[in-house]
C-alpha cells in the first residue's frame, strides 16, 4: 500500500487544493488529506468546520480520506505508514519555505519523501489567505472555492 499524506491548514479548502488531491490520488494507492490543528495561525474556521468543508466538498472518493493531526507531521506520517508527503507548489515564492520544511522533515524522518505537485496554471495565484481577504472585502469567491466553502465564507464573514 503506497500511502501519501497531503497536509495543510485548509482554512478553507480551495479549488487549488482539490486539484492537488486529484493529482495525488492518481499517483498513490491512498491519500490522507491531513488537516493541521495549527491554532497558532488563528484559523478563520475551526478544525471541525475545516474537516466538514473538505468532506462535504469531496464527497466520497475511493482512495482519499480526510483526517486531522496535531504535533509533528512526520510523526503522523509514520503512524499512518505513509511513504510520502504531498505539497502543492504554486510559485517561486512558495519555494523557500517549502524547501526548508521538506529538508527539515527529511532530517526528522528520512523514510518519508516530500513530493511537490503543481496545480493547474489557473490556480497558481490562489491561496486560502487571498480567498478570505476577497470574501472579507465583499468580492465574489465562487470561482476559487467549491460552493459549500463559498457559502460558509459568506456566513462567517457577515
Ligand atoms: O497549509 P499550510 O498552512 O501551508 O500547512 C502547513 C503545515 C500544516 C503542513 C505545516 O505547518 C506542518 O507540517 N505543521 C505540523 C508541525 C510540524 O511538523 N512542523 C515541522 C515542519 S518542518
Care to describe what's here?
Strands 3-2-1-4-5 form a 5-stranded parallel sheet. The chain is globular. It has helices at 15-27, 47-58, 73-79, 92-108, 128-136, 147-156, and strands spanning 3-8, 30-36, 64-69, 84-88, 113-117. It has a single domain (3-124), classed as HUPs (Rossmann fold), CATH 3.40.50. It is of the alpha/beta class. It has 6 helices and 5 strands. 4'-phosphopantetheine (PNS) binds next to strand 1 and helix 4.
Q: Briefly, what is this?
A:
The protein is of the alpha/beta class. It has 6 helices and 5 strands.
Q: Keywords, please?
A:
five-stranded parallel beta sheet, Rossmann fold, 158 residues, alpha/beta, globular, binds 4'-phosphopantetheine
Which value, in Å, is the CA radius of gyration?
Answer: 15 Å
- In which order are the strands of the major sheet placed? 3-2-1-4-5
The percent range for strand residues is 15-25%
Integer average pLDDT: 96
By CATH, the topology is Rossmann fold
Q: For the terminal residues, how far apart are their CA atoms? A: 45 Å
Protein structure class: alpha/beta
Under CATH, the homologous superfamily reads HUPs
Helix coverage percent? 40-55%
Net shape: globular
H/E topology pattern: EHEHEHEHEHH
Amino acid at each position: 500500500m503506497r500511502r501519501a499524506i497531503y497536509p495543510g491548514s485548509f482554512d478553507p479548502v480551495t479549488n487549488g487544493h482539490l486539484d492537488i488531491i486529484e493529482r495525488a490520488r492518481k499517483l498513490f494507492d491512498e491519500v490522507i488529506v491531513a488537516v493541521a490543528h495549527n491554532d497558532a495561525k488563528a484559523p478563520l474556521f475551526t478544525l471541525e468546520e475545516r474537516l466538514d468543508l473538505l468532506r462535504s466538498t469531496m464527497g466520497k472518493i475511493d482512495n482519499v480520506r480526510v483526517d486531522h493531526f496535531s504535533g509533528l507531521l512526520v510523526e503522523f506520517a509514520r503512524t499512518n505508514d505513509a511513504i510520502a508527503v504531498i505539497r502543492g507548489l504554486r510559485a517561486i515564492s512558495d519555494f523557500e519555505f517549502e524547501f526548508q520544511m521538506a529538508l527539515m522533515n527529511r532530517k526528522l524522518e528520512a523514510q518519508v519523501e516530500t513530493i511537490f505537485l503543481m496545480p493547474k496554471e489557473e490556480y497558481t495565484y490562489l491561496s486560502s489567505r487571498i480567498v478570505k481577504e476577497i470574501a472579507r472585502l465583499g468580492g465574489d469567491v465562487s470561482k476559487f472555492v467549491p460552493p459549500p466553502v463559498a457559502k460558509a465564507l459568506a456566513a462567517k464573514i457577515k
